[in-house]
Amino acid sequence: MRKIDFGGLLSTYGVVIALLALIAFGWLRYENFLGMFNIMSVLRYNSMFALVALGMCFVIMTGGIDLSVGTVAALGSVAAAYSSPYGPIAGLAAGVGVGTVVGLINAVMITRMHIMPFIATLASMLAASGTALLLANNRSVPVSYQSGFTDLGQGNFVGLPIPAIIAAIAYILGWVVLNYTATGRGVLAVGGSEESAKLMGLPADRIKALAYIASGGLAGLAGVILAAQFGAGQPIEGVGWELFAIASVVVGGTLLTGGVGSVGSTLAGVLLLGILFTVLNFENGLGWISLSAYWQSVIRGAFLLAVVILQARLVAGETSRT
Amino acid sequence: MADDLLLSMQGIDKKFGGIPAVSSASLSIERGEVHALIGQNGAGKSTLIKVLTGYYKRDAGQVLFDGKPFEVTSPQQAQKSGISTIYQEINLVPLRSVTENICLGREQRRMGFLDWTAMHAEAERLLHRFKIDIDVRKPLGRLNTATQQMVAIARAIGFSAKLVIMDEPTSSLDEQEVSVLFGVIRQLKADGVSVVFVSHKLDELYEVCDRVTIMRDGRTVRSANMNEIKKLELVSSMLGRDVSRAEGHATAFAKRDRSKIGEVMFKANGLSAKPSVRDVSVDLRRGEIVGLAGLLGAGRTETARLIFAVDAPDGGEMELQNRPYRPRRPADAINAGLGFCTEDRKIEGIVADMTVAENIMLALLSRVSPHGVFDPAKQHELATNFIAKLGIKCSGPNQKVRELSGGNQQKVLLARWLAMNPKLLILDEPTRGIDVGAKGEIQRLIKSLADEGLGVLMISSELEEIVEGADRIFVLREGTLVAELQGDTATEDAVLAAMAHGTSPRTVEARV
């Protein structure tokens, strides 16, 4: 007999509940909120953040942090823009390639040189930003519009935005890896207690290294989409993306200390924050009030806090019952 | 005979920074035997085991396992070769499910992906051997310590090991659970699996072990058949003292002079926090050591937590020095003059990366920080005093607590509470996981503190410690107070009987 653990469900799906509530709110309040155009543009735009947050989710589940994802995405976009004349595959290879290299450097610093993840990725964050600006000569790098590269950001496939399809595939892979591979479970074990994981015979360093490499690669991939979507490699983009990614992961119920986490609720976290942004834009569109970007920031912060508190309450309620 | 040897370690050396932790040690384990490995803390048992499992690389020596030279560089490899280890501190991941904790490292797959159905079934099957029936999908951290320990053992056995090393597996188990564990050990033995059993509890060794190897100062000083060596010889080999000095070493609580015990200073009436504590009434006098006995889960720690206001009671009243005592949080208890040394010093007490001085002063920061400014000189001075007073063996106040032995860590924790100058100190398993020598020192310390007028409420799972140490003993069973025994007339049998069958104070006292 399996009992249904409602507390567990609520804490896992708290973010989903908040997401559905927000969508319902938008649907009731604004015309065209659930229109095809709006849905597609939300998905297209947020797919970059979704990719970055997926990598961040894995890193955070190991108990670490990756601050470099934003500037790595910028670097990836520049690399992709330069190779865009050779087609979408070349662009992808360049962007994902540089991201993976930075991820590898992070992994070596953290697992071999035993530098704290916060410091190591802070260093690579600065280095990646500098490299991106150097490569791009401090300008945006236009992409080729002839090679089909821009389809990666602007194209559709069976009526769905290609970047959203890429993100969806990444999330499905991420979900399978986390739940159905030894490495994925190892990520959670290492985050739960690294010492124990080592004594249990798990290759803790290799598992951590893989998380950072994946995070770098996914950030690079986000950079490719960035370049393709906006028609240029953007060396100064990506600032603050790491915080958006961390926020999405945390709102999704993943513990910052590691050991507990979920790919699905990270995606829900990304959508929640992304749709909140859209809701605020629609609110401005109604014309009654005008929320400046600053006020939008405040509202998003408050909303974020509210969801985190809701999650904590749900978790507390669950543990007190058992 | 040589064919029966499963493991042979010869001439093992291991140095740390030039200091030998193990020198020319040897250990032979036969197939299907239960082999005790004993020695004081720091004797080199853990190092020897970690050399065997590849956690450390040996400097010299030879290891043969299953007739072949054995070279592993990680516990993972050792596990694959058939050596599983269960560590003293449960080294599992509390946030993850029971199944994951049992199956990680040898996952079952279907078409390359983890097969959760098979893994849950495997975890349940292994646990059923211990007669444990739990929801294996739940996080391990929701279970009590004893069950977590059983999960650790199930994990080790699941690796179809030829040799299972158990490093103090019983230190968190109550007697009933220990007997379940011993049943499992005997079954392993019947299946031809060898067990290395590390324990400080000598009685257990006689119950379950075939042979014993004794370590002292990094050397293996003696190996013998268990039925050919007396307990006294064991202790004297461990301590390197002759038999006459080791005599009467059961506990260091020599019979106390009870004339110094003063007036009643603390009273609890009808304390309840259902379902773990029901209507418990205890009292304590100045300078008295009161023992709280009972099996694991009898409500001993839970009662202590109510007194210290860690948990809120749902009934009952308390009095401290004839005044109502109604603490709402531990800070109130501390202000009223209580101290509480918790059972699990790693988790709740010691901050391993801080120095001895910092650990002692942790609860006292306000006192060494007049006007909110922290005074390192004062901290150093106070810490130095306590190091001398309690005989804490360390290089000085600035040594990291991580580097101290278990016994000395416990003393640091004691020093922290003593620094507050408490009137009543609650000690939960004060000598758990500490070697014989340090145990005696802690016990003498507790006694001398009581002689100075401190009231001590001592929880202990070691019967001899309770019976010899306590001036009065309260016995709990399933959350209820079932007996109050006087220390000078109490026997281990009487306490055991109350723990096992007690129903209410009157019936038990009648039987005793």
Short recap of the structure:
Chain A has 322 residues and is mainly α. Chain A contains 13 helices and 4 strands. Chain A has a single domain, classed as Orthogonal Bundle (ABC transporter involved in vitamin B12 uptake, BtuC).
Helix and strand layout, with pairings?
The complex is a heterodimer of chains A (about 325) and B (about 500).
Chain A: H1 6-29, H2 36-61, H3 69-83, H4 88-112, H5 117-135, E1 141-142, H6 151-154, E2 156-157, E3 160-161, H7 162-180, H8 182-192, H9 194-199, H10 204-230, E4 232-233, H11 241-251, H12 263-286, H13 293-321
Antiparallel strand pairs in A: 1-4, 2-3
Helix pairs in contact in A: 1-12, 1-13, 2-7, 2-8, 2-10, 2-11, 2-12, 3-4, 3-5, 3-10, 4-5, 4-10, 7-8, 8-10, 11-12
Chain B: E1 5-16, E2 19-30, E3 34-38, H1 45-52, E4 60-65, E5 68-69, H2 75-81, E6 83-86, H3 98-103, E7 109-110, E8 113-114, H4 116-128, H5 145-158, E9 163-167, H6 175-190, E10 194-198, H7 202-208, E11 211-216, E12 219-225, H8 231-239, H9 243-246, E13 264-273, E14 277-285, E15 289-293, H10 300-307, E16 315-320, E17 323-324, H11 330-335, E18 338-341, H12 345-349, H13 356-361, H14 365-368, H15 376-390, H16 406-418, E19 424-428, H17 436-451, E20 455-459, H18 463-469, E21 472-477, E22 480-486, H19 492-501, H20 505-511
Parallel strand pairs in B: 3-10, 3-11, 6-9, 9-10, 15-20, 15-21, 18-19, 19-20
Antiparallel strand pairs in B: 1-2, 1-4, 4-5, 7-8, 11-12, 13-14, 13-16, 16-17, 21-22
Overview of the structural elements:
- The complex is a heterodimer of chains A (322) and B (512).
- Chain A is an all-alpha fold and 322 residues long.
- Chain A has a single domain (6-317), classed as ABC transporter involved in vitamin B12 uptake, BtuC.
- In chain A, the strands form 2 sheets. In chain A, strands 1-4 form a two-stranded antiparallel ribbon. Chain A has a two-stranded antiparallel ribbon with strand order 2-3.
- Chain A contains 13 helices and 4 strands.
- The longest helix of chain A is centred in the C-terminal third of the chain and has 29 residues, at 293-321.
- In chain A, strand 2 (156-157) and strand 3 form a beta hairpin.
- With 512 residues, chain B is α/β, with parallel strands linked by helices.
- In chain B, the strands form 5 sheets. In chain B, strands 6-9-10-3-11-12 form a 6-stranded mixed sheet, sandwiched between helices.
- The longest helix of chain B is centred in the middle third of the chain and has 16 residues, at 175-190.
- Chain B is globular, with a radius of gyration of 24 Å.
- Chain B starts with a strand and ends with a helix.
- In chain B, 48% of the residues are buried.
- The chains are: A mainly alpha (322), B alpha/beta (512).
- Chain A binds chain B through residues 2, 176, 179-182, 185-186, 188-189, 191-193, 195-203, 255, 259-260, 322, and chain B through 55, 74-76, 78-80, 85, 87, 91-96, 100-101, 104-105, 107, 113-114, 137, 142, 155.
